[in-house]
Specification:
The two termini are 33 Å apart. This protein is 32% helix and 21% strand. The chain contains twelve helices and 16 strands. The radius of gyration is 23 Å and the shape is globular. The strands form three sheets. The protein has a six-stranded mixed β-sheet, sandwiched between helices. It is α/β, with parallel strands linked by helices.
Protein backbone atom coordinates (compact mmCIF):
# COMPACT_ATOMS: atom_id res chain seq x y z
CA UNK A 1 0.00 0.00 0.00
CA UNK A 2 1.32 3.47 -0.80
CA UNK A 3 2.13 5.82 2.05
CA UNK A 4 -0.29 8.67 2.79
CA UNK A 5 1.04 12.23 3.06
CA UNK A 6 -1.32 14.77 4.65
CA UNK A 7 -0.98 18.54 4.26
CA UNK A 8 -1.82 20.32 7.53
CA UNK A 9 -1.97 23.91 8.72
CA UNK A 10 -4.18 26.86 9.52
CA UNK A 11 -6.35 28.54 6.87
CA UNK A 12 -4.87 30.49 3.95
CA UNK A 13 -1.22 29.42 4.29
CA UNK A 14 -1.09 27.83 0.82
CA UNK A 15 -1.97 24.19 1.51
CA UNK A 16 -4.06 23.77 -1.65
CA UNK A 17 -1.41 25.46 -3.76
CA UNK A 18 1.15 23.01 -2.37
CA UNK A 19 -1.29 20.17 -3.09
CA UNK A 20 -1.59 21.27 -6.72
CA UNK A 21 2.19 21.66 -6.98
CA UNK A 22 2.88 18.11 -5.81
CA UNK A 23 -0.02 16.64 -7.77
CA UNK A 24 1.20 18.34 -10.94
CA UNK A 25 -2.35 19.44 -11.69
CA UNK A 26 -4.75 22.16 -10.59
CA UNK A 27 -6.96 19.81 -8.59
CA UNK A 28 -7.65 21.92 -5.51
CA UNK A 29 -9.52 25.22 -5.57
CA UNK A 30 -7.21 28.10 -4.65
CA UNK A 31 -8.47 31.49 -3.46
CA UNK A 32 -7.43 34.23 -1.04
CA UNK A 33 -10.53 33.60 1.08
CA UNK A 34 -9.63 31.51 4.15
CA UNK A 35 -11.40 28.19 4.59
CA UNK A 36 -12.13 27.33 0.94
CA UNK A 37 -11.08 23.71 1.53
CA UNK A 38 -13.52 22.00 3.89
CA UNK A 39 -12.88 18.30 3.40
CA UNK A 40 -10.12 15.95 2.32
CA UNK A 41 -9.00 15.93 -1.29
CA UNK A 42 -6.96 12.84 -2.15
CA UNK A 43 -4.87 12.12 -5.24
CA UNK A 44 -2.18 9.53 -6.05
CA UNK A 45 1.18 11.18 -6.76
CA UNK A 46 4.13 9.72 -8.64
CA UNK A 47 7.36 11.70 -8.94
CA UNK A 48 10.10 9.60 -10.52
CA UNK A 49 10.25 6.40 -8.43
CA UNK A 50 8.47 8.08 -5.51
CA UNK A 51 4.77 7.22 -5.10
CA UNK A 52 2.30 8.17 -2.38
CA UNK A 53 -1.28 9.30 -1.75
CA UNK A 54 -1.50 13.04 -1.11
CA UNK A 55 -4.29 14.55 1.01
CA UNK A 56 -5.29 18.22 1.13
CA UNK A 57 -7.01 18.99 4.44
CA UNK A 58 -9.16 21.80 5.78
CA UNK A 59 -7.49 24.80 7.36
CA UNK A 60 -7.30 24.29 11.12
CA UNK A 61 -7.96 27.00 13.68
CA UNK A 62 -9.03 27.00 17.28
CA UNK A 63 -12.44 28.64 16.96
CA UNK A 64 -14.41 25.89 18.69
CA UNK A 65 -17.62 27.95 18.75
CA UNK A 66 -18.29 27.22 15.11
CA UNK A 67 -19.57 23.71 14.57
CA UNK A 68 -18.23 23.53 10.99
CA UNK A 69 -14.72 24.46 12.14
CA UNK A 70 -14.91 21.89 14.93
CA UNK A 71 -15.98 19.15 12.52
CA UNK A 72 -13.19 20.03 10.06
CA UNK A 73 -10.64 19.81 12.86
CA UNK A 74 -12.01 16.50 14.10
CA UNK A 75 -11.96 15.09 10.59
CA UNK A 76 -8.34 16.12 10.08
CA UNK A 77 -7.30 14.68 13.45
CA UNK A 78 -8.94 11.40 12.49
CA UNK A 79 -7.01 11.40 9.23
CA UNK A 80 -3.69 11.95 10.97
CA UNK A 81 -4.39 9.31 13.61
CA UNK A 82 -5.76 6.53 11.41
CA UNK A 83 -4.52 6.95 7.84
CA UNK A 84 -1.73 9.47 7.40
CA UNK A 85 1.87 8.28 7.59
CA UNK A 86 3.60 11.65 7.10
CA UNK A 87 2.45 15.23 7.73
CA UNK A 88 3.43 18.35 5.81
CA UNK A 89 2.85 21.14 8.33
CA UNK A 90 2.48 24.38 6.32
CA UNK A 91 3.01 27.82 7.86
CA UNK A 92 3.05 31.27 6.27
CA UNK A 93 6.68 32.45 6.40
CA UNK A 94 5.67 36.06 5.67
CA UNK A 95 3.32 36.18 8.66
CA UNK A 96 5.61 34.17 10.91
CA UNK A 97 4.71 31.69 13.60
CA UNK A 98 1.25 32.35 15.11
CA UNK A 99 -0.43 31.03 18.28
CA UNK A 100 -2.67 28.88 16.06
CA UNK A 101 0.41 27.30 14.44
CA UNK A 102 1.80 26.48 17.88
CA UNK A 103 -1.56 25.09 19.01
CA UNK A 104 -1.78 22.84 15.95
CA UNK A 105 1.78 21.63 16.64
CA UNK A 106 0.78 20.75 20.22
CA UNK A 107 -1.97 18.34 19.14
CA UNK A 108 -0.08 16.99 16.10
CA UNK A 109 2.98 16.01 18.19
CA UNK A 110 1.35 13.20 20.26
CA UNK A 111 0.50 11.25 17.08
CA UNK A 112 4.27 10.62 16.70
CA UNK A 113 4.15 10.74 12.92
CA UNK A 114 7.04 12.19 10.86
CA UNK A 115 6.30 15.88 10.32
CA UNK A 116 8.01 18.10 7.73
CA UNK A 117 7.51 21.81 8.36
CA UNK A 118 7.00 23.71 5.10
CA UNK A 119 7.59 27.45 5.52
CA UNK A 120 5.53 28.58 2.53
CA UNK A 121 5.70 31.99 0.82
CA UNK A 122 9.40 32.15 1.74
CA UNK A 123 10.50 33.72 -1.54
CA UNK A 124 12.38 36.99 -1.02
CA UNK A 125 13.51 38.60 2.22
CA UNK A 126 9.98 38.99 3.60
CA UNK A 127 9.85 35.30 4.50
CA UNK A 128 13.24 34.93 6.18
CA UNK A 129 12.03 35.77 9.69
CA UNK A 130 9.13 33.32 9.56
CA UNK A 131 11.38 30.58 8.22
CA UNK A 132 13.75 30.86 11.18
CA UNK A 133 10.81 31.04 13.63
CA UNK A 134 9.62 27.68 12.28
CA UNK A 135 12.54 25.94 13.99
CA UNK A 136 10.72 26.59 17.29
CA UNK A 137 8.04 24.04 16.40
CA UNK A 138 10.49 21.24 17.18
CA UNK A 139 9.95 19.10 14.08
CA UNK A 140 13.48 19.43 12.70
CA UNK A 141 14.73 21.72 9.96
CA UNK A 142 11.90 23.46 8.10
CA UNK A 143 11.94 23.82 4.31
CA UNK A 144 11.93 27.32 2.84
CA UNK A 145 9.30 26.91 0.15
CA UNK A 146 7.19 28.73 -2.38
CA UNK A 147 4.20 26.66 -3.43
CA UNK A 148 3.34 29.29 -6.03
CA UNK A 149 6.77 29.48 -7.69
CA UNK A 150 8.13 26.01 -6.94
CA UNK A 151 11.16 27.15 -4.93
CA UNK A 152 12.28 24.42 -2.54
CA UNK A 153 10.44 21.72 -4.49
CA UNK A 154 13.54 19.55 -4.93
CA UNK A 155 14.39 19.64 -1.22
CA UNK A 156 10.84 18.67 -0.27
CA UNK A 157 10.87 15.68 -2.65
CA UNK A 158 14.24 14.60 -1.25
CA UNK A 159 12.92 14.73 2.32
CA UNK A 160 9.83 12.73 1.35
CA UNK A 161 11.97 10.16 -0.45
CA UNK A 162 13.91 9.58 2.75
CA UNK A 163 10.68 8.70 4.57
CA UNK A 164 8.97 6.68 1.83
CA UNK A 165 10.68 3.40 0.84
CA UNK A 166 10.83 2.78 -2.91
CA UNK A 167 8.47 0.15 -4.25
CA UNK A 168 11.14 -1.11 -6.61
CA UNK A 169 14.88 -0.89 -7.22
CA UNK A 170 15.90 2.68 -7.89
CA UNK A 171 18.81 1.65 -10.11
CA UNK A 172 17.40 3.15 -13.27
CA UNK A 173 20.41 3.47 -15.54
CA UNK A 174 18.05 3.56 -18.52
CA UNK A 175 14.58 5.13 -18.85
CA UNK A 176 11.73 2.71 -18.16
CA UNK A 177 10.22 1.10 -21.22
CA UNK A 178 7.23 3.12 -22.34
CA UNK A 179 8.05 6.01 -20.00
CA UNK A 180 9.07 9.13 -21.95
CA UNK A 181 12.16 11.10 -21.11
CA UNK A 182 10.82 14.51 -20.07
CA UNK A 183 12.96 17.21 -21.71
CA UNK A 184 12.27 20.93 -21.23
CA UNK A 185 13.76 23.66 -23.44
CA UNK A 186 14.10 26.93 -21.51
CA UNK A 187 15.69 30.34 -21.94
CA UNK A 188 15.00 34.02 -22.44
CA UNK A 189 12.42 35.27 -24.98
CA UNK A 190 13.48 34.87 -28.60
CA UNK A 191 16.39 32.54 -27.78
CA UNK A 192 15.17 30.07 -30.42
CA UNK A 193 13.47 27.45 -28.26
CA UNK A 194 10.49 26.83 -30.54
CA UNK A 195 12.72 26.87 -33.63
CA UNK A 196 14.94 24.22 -32.01
CA UNK A 197 11.99 21.93 -31.32
CA UNK A 198 10.63 22.40 -34.85
CA UNK A 199 14.03 21.42 -36.24
CA UNK A 200 14.20 18.32 -34.05
CA UNK A 201 10.69 17.30 -35.08
CA UNK A 202 11.27 18.09 -38.74
CA UNK A 203 8.01 19.99 -38.75
CA UNK A 204 6.73 23.51 -38.05
CA UNK A 205 4.81 22.22 -35.05
CA UNK A 206 5.28 25.37 -32.96
CA UNK A 207 4.66 28.98 -33.86
CA UNK A 208 7.86 30.97 -34.30
CA UNK A 209 8.79 34.48 -35.37
CA UNK A 210 11.06 37.43 -34.66
CA UNK A 211 8.78 38.79 -31.94
CA UNK A 212 9.83 37.89 -28.42
CA UNK A 213 7.27 36.10 -26.25
CA UNK A 214 5.20 34.25 -28.89
CA UNK A 215 5.10 31.16 -26.66
CA UNK A 216 3.01 31.95 -23.58
CA UNK A 217 2.47 28.60 -21.92
CA UNK A 218 4.42 25.35 -21.69
CA UNK A 219 3.58 23.14 -24.68
CA UNK A 220 4.27 19.39 -24.52
CA UNK A 221 5.06 17.47 -27.70
CA UNK A 222 5.59 13.68 -27.87
CA UNK A 223 8.54 12.67 -30.04
CA UNK A 224 10.39 9.45 -30.82
CA UNK A 225 14.15 9.85 -31.20
CA UNK A 226 15.52 6.55 -32.49
CA UNK A 227 14.28 4.08 -29.82
CA UNK A 228 13.70 6.68 -27.09
CA UNK A 229 10.30 8.18 -26.39
CA UNK A 230 10.69 11.86 -25.49
CA UNK A 231 8.19 14.40 -24.21
CA UNK A 232 9.46 17.82 -25.28
CA UNK A 233 8.36 20.91 -23.38
CA UNK A 234 8.57 24.23 -25.18
CA UNK A 235 8.36 27.01 -22.60
CA UNK A 236 7.75 30.73 -22.44
CA UNK A 237 10.82 32.96 -22.33
CA UNK A 238 11.87 34.03 -18.83
CA UNK A 239 12.91 37.66 -18.41
CA UNK A 240 14.27 39.53 -15.42
CA UNK A 241 11.75 39.55 -12.59
CA UNK A 242 11.64 43.37 -12.57
CA UNK A 243 10.45 43.37 -16.19
CA UNK A 244 7.69 40.82 -15.66
CA UNK A 245 4.67 43.01 -14.99
CA UNK A 246 1.59 41.80 -16.86
CA UNK A 247 -0.43 39.08 -15.19
CA UNK A 248 -0.40 36.94 -18.34
CA UNK A 249 3.39 36.97 -18.46
CA UNK A 250 3.58 36.09 -14.77
CA UNK A 251 1.40 33.06 -15.47
CA UNK A 252 3.65 32.13 -18.40
CA UNK A 253 6.77 32.28 -16.23
CA UNK A 254 4.99 30.13 -13.67
CA UNK A 255 4.27 27.56 -16.38
CA UNK A 256 7.95 27.54 -17.33
CA UNK A 257 8.99 26.91 -13.73
CA UNK A 258 6.41 24.12 -13.55
CA UNK A 259 7.94 22.56 -16.66
CA UNK A 260 11.37 22.63 -14.98
CA UNK A 261 9.95 21.01 -11.84
CA UNK A 262 8.43 18.11 -13.74
CA UNK A 263 11.17 17.65 -16.34
CA UNK A 264 14.02 15.19 -15.94
CA UNK A 265 16.45 16.96 -18.26
CA UNK A 266 16.60 20.62 -19.24
CA UNK A 267 18.33 22.37 -22.13
CA UNK A 268 19.02 26.04 -21.46
CA UNK A 269 19.32 27.99 -24.71
CA UNK A 270 21.56 31.05 -24.69
CA UNK A 271 22.24 33.89 -27.07
CA UNK A 272 25.72 33.82 -28.69
CA UNK A 273 27.23 36.45 -26.44
CA UNK A 274 29.63 36.72 -23.50
CA UNK A 275 29.29 37.43 -20.68
CA UNK A 276 26.05 35.48 -20.38
CA UNK A 277 23.13 37.49 -19.00
CA UNK A 278 22.69 37.26 -15.23
CA UNK A 279 19.11 36.07 -15.74
CA UNK A 280 20.38 33.03 -17.70
CA UNK A 281 22.78 32.07 -14.91
CA UNK A 282 19.96 32.39 -12.36
CA UNK A 283 17.75 30.15 -14.49
CA UNK A 284 20.56 27.57 -14.79
CA UNK A 285 21.02 27.65 -11.01
CA UNK A 286 17.26 27.18 -10.58
CA UNK A 287 17.39 24.02 -12.72
CA UNK A 288 20.32 22.63 -10.72
CA UNK A 289 18.74 23.56 -7.39
CA UNK A 290 15.69 21.56 -8.38
CA UNK A 291 17.96 18.59 -9.05
CA UNK A 292 17.47 18.36 -12.80
CA UNK A 293 19.98 17.27 -15.43
CA UNK A 294 21.12 20.42 -17.29
CA UNK A 295 22.76 21.07 -20.64
CA UNK A 296 23.76 24.49 -21.97
CA UNK A 297 23.20 25.23 -25.68
CA UNK A 298 24.54 28.40 -27.28
CA UNK A 299 22.26 29.09 -30.23
CA UNK A 300 22.81 31.00 -33.50
CA UNK A 301 26.45 29.89 -33.81
CA UNK A 302 26.11 30.46 -37.56
CA UNK A 303 26.38 34.16 -36.68
CA UNK A 304 29.73 33.81 -34.83
CA UNK A 305 32.88 34.65 -36.81
CA UNK A 306 35.63 33.04 -34.67
CA UNK A 307 33.72 30.00 -33.37
CA UNK A 308 36.79 28.17 -32.02
CA UNK A 309 37.80 31.00 -29.70
CA UNK A 310 34.19 31.56 -28.66
CA UNK A 311 33.76 27.89 -27.68
CA UNK A 312 36.87 27.94 -25.50
CA UNK A 313 35.86 31.15 -23.71
CA UNK A 314 32.22 30.08 -23.34
CA UNK A 315 33.04 26.72 -21.71
CA UNK A 316 35.46 28.39 -19.27
CA UNK A 317 32.85 31.05 -18.41
CA UNK A 318 30.06 28.53 -17.77
CA UNK A 319 32.30 26.41 -15.52
CA UNK A 320 33.22 29.53 -13.55
CA UNK A 321 29.62 30.67 -13.15
CA UNK A 322 28.22 27.22 -12.27
CA UNK A 323 30.87 25.65 -10.00
CA UNK A 324 28.28 23.31 -8.45
CA UNK A 325 28.02 21.39 -11.77
CA UNK A 326 31.62 20.84 -12.82
CA UNK A 327 31.91 19.25 -16.24
CA UNK A 328 28.52 20.45 -17.46
CA UNK A 329 27.92 19.80 -21.16
CA UNK A 330 28.03 22.92 -23.33
CA UNK A 331 26.75 22.63 -26.91
CA UNK A 332 26.99 25.05 -29.83
CA UNK A 333 24.07 24.86 -32.23
CA UNK A 334 22.00 26.69 -34.77
CA UNK A 335 18.31 25.96 -34.31
CA UNK A 336 17.65 27.57 -37.69
CA UNK A 337 20.18 25.69 -39.85
CA UNK A 338 20.50 22.51 -37.76
CA UNK A 339 24.23 22.94 -37.18
CA UNK A 340 25.37 20.96 -34.11
CA UNK A 341 21.93 19.46 -33.41
CA UNK A 342 23.17 15.95 -34.14
CA UNK A 343 25.02 16.03 -30.80
CA UNK A 344 22.05 17.26 -28.75
CA UNK A 345 20.11 14.07 -28.01
CA UNK A 346 23.16 11.81 -27.49
CA UNK A 347 24.43 14.31 -24.89
CA UNK A 348 20.97 14.58 -23.29
CA UNK A 349 20.79 10.79 -22.90
CA UNK A 350 24.36 10.63 -21.59
CA UNK A 351 23.61 13.26 -18.92
CA UNK A 352 20.33 11.48 -18.11
CA UNK A 353 22.16 8.19 -17.48
CA UNK A 354 24.63 9.94 -15.17
CA UNK A 355 21.70 11.62 -13.39
CA UNK A 356 20.28 8.12 -12.75
CA UNK A 357 23.54 6.72 -11.34
CA UNK A 358 23.27 4.41 -8.34
CA UNK A 359 26.48 3.53 -6.47
CA UNK A 360 26.38 0.30 -4.40
CA UNK A 361 26.92 0.92 -0.68
CA UNK A 362 29.91 -1.42 -0.46
CA UNK A 363 31.63 0.33 -3.35
CA UNK A 364 30.82 3.74 -1.86
CA UNK A 365 32.36 2.82 1.49
CA UNK A 366 35.51 1.46 -0.14
CA UNK A 367 35.77 4.86 -1.81
CA UNK A 368 35.22 6.52 1.58
CA UNK A 369 38.08 4.52 3.15
CA UNK A 370 40.42 5.66 0.39
CA UNK A 371 39.36 9.30 0.73
CA UNK A 372 39.81 9.29 4.51
CA UNK A 373 43.17 7.59 4.21
CA UNK A 374 44.47 10.06 1.63
CA UNK A 375 43.02 13.18 3.24
CA UNK A 376 41.40 12.74 6.70
CA UNK A 377 39.07 15.44 8.07
CA UNK A 378 40.86 18.23 9.94
CA UNK A 379 40.75 18.54 13.71
CA UNK A 380 38.14 21.03 14.89
CA UNK A 381 38.77 22.57 18.30
CA UNK A 382 41.26 19.74 18.90
CA UNK A 383 38.51 17.19 18.42
CA UNK A 384 38.59 14.40 15.89
CA UNK A 385 35.83 14.20 13.25
CA UNK A 386 34.97 10.60 12.36
CA UNK A 387 32.99 9.78 9.22
CA UNK A 388 31.55 6.36 10.05
CA UNK A 389 30.06 5.33 6.73
CA UNK A 390 28.33 6.60 3.61
CA UNK A 391 25.28 5.55 1.66
CA UNK A 392 23.38 6.74 -1.38
CA UNK A 393 19.87 7.80 -0.42
CA UNK A 394 18.53 8.08 -3.95
CA UNK A 395 19.36 8.80 -7.55
CA UNK A 396 17.80 11.39 -9.87
CA UNK A 397 20.02 13.26 -8.89
CA UNK A 398 22.62 11.21 -6.97
CA UNK A 399 22.08 11.96 -3.28
CA UNK A 400 24.50 10.75 -0.61
CA UNK A 401 24.52 10.73 3.19
CA UNK A 402 27.60 10.77 5.42
CA UNK A 403 27.17 9.59 9.01
CA UNK A 404 29.48 11.63 11.24
CA UNK A 405 30.14 11.78 14.99
CA UNK A 406 30.24 15.62 14.94
CA UNK A 407 28.01 16.56 12.01
CA UNK A 408 27.83 20.29 12.71
CA UNK A 409 31.61 20.70 12.84
CA UNK A 410 32.73 19.21 9.53
CA UNK A 411 34.08 22.11 7.41
CA UNK A 412 32.45 23.06 4.11
CA UNK A 413 35.87 22.93 2.47
CA UNK A 414 36.11 19.24 3.33
CA UNK A 415 32.63 18.61 1.93
CA UNK A 416 33.67 20.30 -1.31
CA UNK A 417 36.71 18.03 -1.42
CA UNK A 418 34.49 14.96 -0.97
CA UNK A 419 32.11 16.17 -3.66
CA UNK A 420 35.03 16.62 -6.05
CA UNK A 421 36.22 13.09 -5.32
CA UNK A 422 32.70 11.68 -5.79
CA UNK A 423 32.54 13.28 -9.23
CA UNK A 424 36.02 12.08 -10.20
CA UNK A 425 35.86 8.47 -9.00
CA UNK A 426 32.28 7.67 -9.97
CA UNK A 427 32.29 9.77 -13.16
CA UNK A 428 29.49 12.19 -12.29
CA UNK A 429 30.32 15.31 -14.34
CA UNK A 430 27.91 18.15 -14.97
CA UNK A 431 24.97 17.09 -12.78
CA UNK A 432 23.83 18.27 -9.34
CA UNK A 433 25.06 16.16 -6.43
CA UNK A 434 23.43 16.31 -3.02
CA UNK A 435 25.56 15.52 0.00
CA UNK A 436 24.00 15.29 3.47
CA UNK A 437 25.83 15.10 6.78
CA UNK A 438 24.05 13.30 9.58
CA UNK A 439 24.61 12.21 13.12
CA UNK A 440 22.72 10.70 16.04
CA UNK A 441 20.83 7.45 16.39
CA UNK A 442 17.91 8.63 14.27
CA UNK A 443 18.97 8.22 10.59
CA UNK A 444 16.52 10.95 9.58
CA UNK A 445 17.92 13.49 12.03
CA UNK A 446 19.75 15.90 9.79
CA UNK A 447 22.30 18.22 11.36
CA UNK A 448 23.83 19.79 8.31
CA UNK A 449 23.30 19.67 4.57
CA UNK A 450 25.26 20.53 1.49
CA UNK A 451 22.98 20.72 -1.57
CA UNK A 452 24.74 21.14 -4.89
Amino acid sequence: MPKTVAILGRPNVGKSTLFNRLAGKRLALVHDTPGVTRDWKVTPVTIGSLSFDLVDTAGLDEDGDKSLTTRMKRSTQSLLEEKADIGLFVIDARVGLTPIDEEIASWVRPFKKPIIVVANKAEGKAGEGGYFEAFKLGFGDPIAFSAEHGEGYGELITRLAELIPPEEDEDMAEPEVGSPLKLAIVGRPNAGKSTLINNLLGDDRLLTGPEAGITRDAIAVDWMWKDTLVKLFDTAGVRKRARVQENLEKMSVGDTLNAINFAESVVLMLEPELPVAHQDIRLASKVLDEGRSLLIAFNKVDQIENLGAFKKNAIAYIEEQLPHAKGITVLFVSALTGEGLGNLMPEVLKAHRIWNTRVPTAKLNRWLEGVLSAHPPPLVKRRLIKIKYATQIKSRPPTFALYVNRPTEIPDTYLRYMEKELRRVFKLPGIPIRLYVRGGKNPYYEKKKRNN
